[in-house]
Design goal:
Elements: H1 8-29, E1 45-48, E2 55-61, E3 66-73, E4 81-87, E5 97-103, E6 110-116, E7 132-139, E8 145-152, H2 155-160, E9 162-170, H3 186-189, E10 192-196, E11 201-204, H4 210-239, H5 249-277, H6 285-307, H7 316-345, H8 349-381
Domain DOMON: 52-170
Binding site for heme b: 218, 254, 287, 323
Transmembrane segments: 219-237, 290-307, 319-339, 354-377
Length: 404
């Protein structure tokens, strides 16, 4: 039996070599320059696209304005789709002329379809506005798909030498070739850029896209207002006013929270309307409708401050019912819509988790204060006075909820 001895220095060198090989090899394998195709197609240029782990290989024949492309991407699910598109007039997905590849649900063979995406509400197979031929697709062992095609570049785009490209990947394909909606995470929203056909490079979304910034601002404003300040103001009105020493401080704290929440919420509501009205905006009907309802109800609630009858007025009882009912509606719809916003914006999991912790903490505090304040009220009722002071009706009735 042959035995080999390795000196400590040689062993250390070997370990360093192994470590760097393992570290570098994945990075090397995930570049377009290492990719090969089943039919050994060769392209003059390849680019690692900046999002969705996608790659573009292309050859541009300038004299005849013909673009040969191979787009490589991985669907988020096994039955998903990938798409590469040219947008002749804008930089987003709406208006783009798309090549989409997915595996046929019956045969499992990848196919390519063309889609003229005039709007997000209607995405079905349709001929493109320019000539395209030799459309084929291939599946790879790593789960990715490849779109091959040759495209006739229009005269105006050929003159500029640049095209607006958009790429995407989605989870599935429905009946009639209807594409299942893709995610709207940062990587999906940044999957666009300008392709320089002559110099062979691309410029994509650097940093955070402007639309993403607007969505983040919209989410923060609404999360703070409807999701935190309004529940906190409601808790102050319900629990703190039960303590005699807190009057009238509870009322001013309640008003501060609700008016601040309303002002911030209106700002968030306005940014949401602006996002929905932009040409490339995406309509989230449920989230939008709840937002509009919140604005209307909160506005009515603010007007309650000016319409509030005196404590001994005969209509005060009805005002209490109206104020409490609207307050609870705003509370429930606000928290519900914040979670809908999380599902749409799809931020890092830590942000949703942080908000859940805040809501759970507020709920736990409310549960504890509910027990404490009932004890306070019951003790007061069993005391000397038959009409205990409750911080709201000045001893003119029982315990109220969410009143101001």
């Amino acid at each position: 039996m042959l035995r080999f001895k390795m000196s400590p220095s040689s062993a250390a060198a070997f370990l360093r070599f192994t470590f760097w090989t393992l570290l570098i090899s994945p990075a090397v394998s995930l570049t377009c320059s290492t990719q090969k195709f089943n039919k050994n197609q060769v392209f003059s240029t390849c680019i690692d696209l900046p999002s969705l782990s996608s790659y573009l290989h292309f050859t541009y024949d300038s004299p005849i304005a013909t673009l040969s492309v191979a787009f490589v991407a991985t669907p988020p699910k096994s039955g998903g789709w990938i798409a590469w598109a040219i947008n002749p007039k804008a930089t987003g997905m709406v208006g783009s002329q798309a090549l989409v590849a997915y595996k046929n649900s019956t045969t499992g063979v990848p196919v390519v379809r063309t889609y003229d995406i005039s709007s997000y509400s209607s995405i079905v197979p349709k001929d493109l506005s320019f000539a395209v031929w030799d459309k084929t697709a291939e599946s790879r062992s790593d789960g990715s798909l490849v779109i091959f095609a040759k495209i006739k570049v229009t005269a105006d785009l050929a003159a500029s030498g640049k095209i607006n490209q958009v790429w995407q990947a989605g989870p599935g394909v429905g009946d009639g070739g209807m594409l299942v909606k893709h995610e709207f995470a940062a990587a999906n929203l940044q999957s666009k850029g300008t392709l320089d056909l002559k110099n062979g490079d691309t410029s994509g979304s650097s940093g955070v896209d402007t639309t993403i910034k607007k969505k983040n601002i919209h989410g923060i404003l609404n999360g703070v207002s409807w999701g935190i300040l309004f529940p906190l103001g409601a808790m102050i009105a319900r629990y703190i006013r039960a303590f005699e020493s807190a009057d009238p401080a509870w009322f001013y704290l309640h008003m501060l929270c609700q008016i601040s929440g309303y002002a911030i919420g209106v700002a968030g509501w306005g940014t949401g309307l602006k996002l929905g009205s932009e040409p490339l905006g995406i309509m989230y009907s449920g989230h939008r409708n709840i937002g509009i309802a919140l604005f209307v109800l909160a506005t009515v609630q603010i007007f309650a401050l000016f319409l509030r009858p005196k404590k001994d007025h005969k209509y005060r009882f009805y005002w209490n019912i109206y104020h409490h009912g609207v307050g609870y509606a705003v509370l429930v719809l606000g928290i519900l819509n914040v979670f809908k916003g999380f599902d749409i914006l799809n931020p890092d999991r830590k942000w949703k988790l942080a908000y859940m912790i805040i809501i759970i903490a507020l709920g736990a505090i409310s549960f504890l204060l509910e027990a404490i304040t009932w004890v306070v009220v019951l003790k007061r009722k069993s005391g000397k006075s038959n009409k205990p002071y409750d911080g709201y009706n000045n001893g003119q009735g029982g315990r109220q909820t969410l009143a101001t």
